[in-house]
Amino acid sequence: MKKILFIIFMVCSLPMHANTAKDDLAAIQALAKRIIPEQAGHFIFKVTKSQKDQFRLESKGQKIQISGNNANSMAVGLNHYLKYYCKVEVGWFSHDTFTMPAKLPKVTRPVTVDARVKDRFFLNYCTFGYTMPWWQWEEWEHFIDWMALNGVNLPLAITGQESIWYQVWTELGLSDEEVRNYFTGPSHLPWHRMLNIDYWQGPLPKSWLDGQLKLQQKITARERELNMKPVLPAFAGHVPYELTRIYPDAKITKLEPWSGYSADYACSFLDPMDPLFAQVQQKFLETERKLYGTDHIYGIDLFNELMPPSWEPEYLSRVSRQVYETLEAVDPQAIWLQMTWLFYNERQYWTNDKVKPYITSYPAEHSLLLDYYCERMEVWQRTEKYYGVPYIWCYLGNFGGNTMLMGNISEINTRIENTFENGGKNFQGIGSTLEGFDCNPFMYEYVFEKAWNFDLHKDVTEWMNSLADQRLGRRDAKERAAWQLMKDSVYTEVARPGHSSLISIRPTFGKYKTYYANPRVPYQNKTLLTILDNMLQADGNTHSYSFDITNVTRQLLSNYFLDVFKKYEKAYTERDRETMGSLEKEMLEIIDDVDRMISTQSYFLVGKWIKDSRSWGVNQEESDYFESNARNLITTWSDKDMLLNDYASRTWAGLTKTFYGVRWKMFFDAVNAALDNGSEFGEKEFEAYKNVITTYEKAWWEQRLGNFTDVPVGDSKAIANELFRKYKDKI
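RE: above sequence
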């Protein structure tokens, strides 16, 4: 029976793996037409027979020839030409724009570049909540092109899995209502998929399931056209608790509530040793294969931010072996991909005597591990190089979609090079596991360029000079000086949870702060002022330049807000009401200025996030539901006043002036009221204030409280110059 299943599975899987040279040429030509429609005809693409990923650039008369072993390699070659010859950077959002030179520069001598690693992984389960939940095909199509241009060939592809689960659970006897209620709202689905929460903001509309199924079919088809292997989900033991009604003898356990949620939202886990586990795995994989195909790489994470039922090494070995065997029974070529975030996040429990049996209980050639947060801790260094199990070095770089200039680029360079030298033969890839698309997009481009043998990577300084040229569209000494200062002062620290502007953190004094609240910056704000001054003197007109001066001004004013708040705290301690009043006014004015600045960029518009969410509704009721879910994630995250409050905060226009601005006004009113009553802002006053502010926070995401622009407003250069002049003598 197992042999019959294997033959059926493999025969049905064959068509998607046989990209011919003709297919590769068609794919890269189509990509070029999408990215540079007016210049696409000036490129010649040629498929080579190289056994490794490789591209070659050369001029052929008035045209540029890009050769490569497949469409993905040729896309990297095209991107290399655009960046380093045309000084053009293609952004990851569909609304990013750029201007090509009037005449394509010649390649004076042929350039051949090889990939240094086989696998280039991208995305994180969380990205599908913090950035992608509302994307339509337009956004996905451009982003897949961006991934190809940056050499990604192993993308996480978890869109539309609820459409499969709906079929599986209803076929096993659950009702339509039971299944849809078991799912969370769209932006919270990543944490449902990772066995963290059930039911929150369900039931999920059937129209969403149908729409996501069609979208995932387009996503996986296009990714395969560009020589990517989508990493699809598989069964990790997560089941609806209602399944106990149909299978009362199954070993289904309610897990502990996650991250402050009540037991009502806790997940249910089916023991992999139970015969039902293999049955569900088979049903899911066969349904998934019919709908989305397979490349035999499956993401399964059993205990992400959860405690296993037992810490006994024998149990951990047995459970992982059992899960692998359920994969192998359906697909003997299966490779189990796991994120090893748990080995970092719960490292006090996941000691090596537990890690080793858990990851070595099944064949290493059928395993692939993501070393998840390498810019801070490389787990391969703590686990004897993962005991020979293949792994991918990953840069995380962002938590919650927070907007904070952050990233330790020189340290990343050092760590990756050390991994190439000392990471073992089982080191086989480079990737990124960002939680959300943040305000430091170039950091991810840098990481993916490290996967290729570009000479430029030997010197981070030269790479930053080239980046400055690309962002401005030309070489300029002031622009280069700005980016060198960024490298040496701003981009020196690893990103951490809660890294965000004080503006977007729930206002309070010290001991009452939000759990995830980290507004600290590792540099002097005067340095950022100098950076902005240099950029403004460079006087660019590209989309990237407009974004950069907006981004730097946003951070500059946000940092200054923190400085003013420290003065406010001091004035409060001294009960200097006059100074407090003056500083309150200044802080509210800074918030307004930040909002006006970031309104110039699609990147920073809460109105776009809300409009995109509403676009999935087939009627008014559904659109309102999706909007509420979208608002919830980026504010309180869950219910009011829980652990994750503000975890996904981001300095976005509209959100800053309304949600954050109103909260600050409420805080000032509460502090002043306490002083007016001859008291202080102590425990009693804080609790009263918290009740008021949490009511407002919940009202903000439960109701449609106003319209926000979903298109950029204002001249970014003019506003940045104005604000520079306004604040330069204060900072």
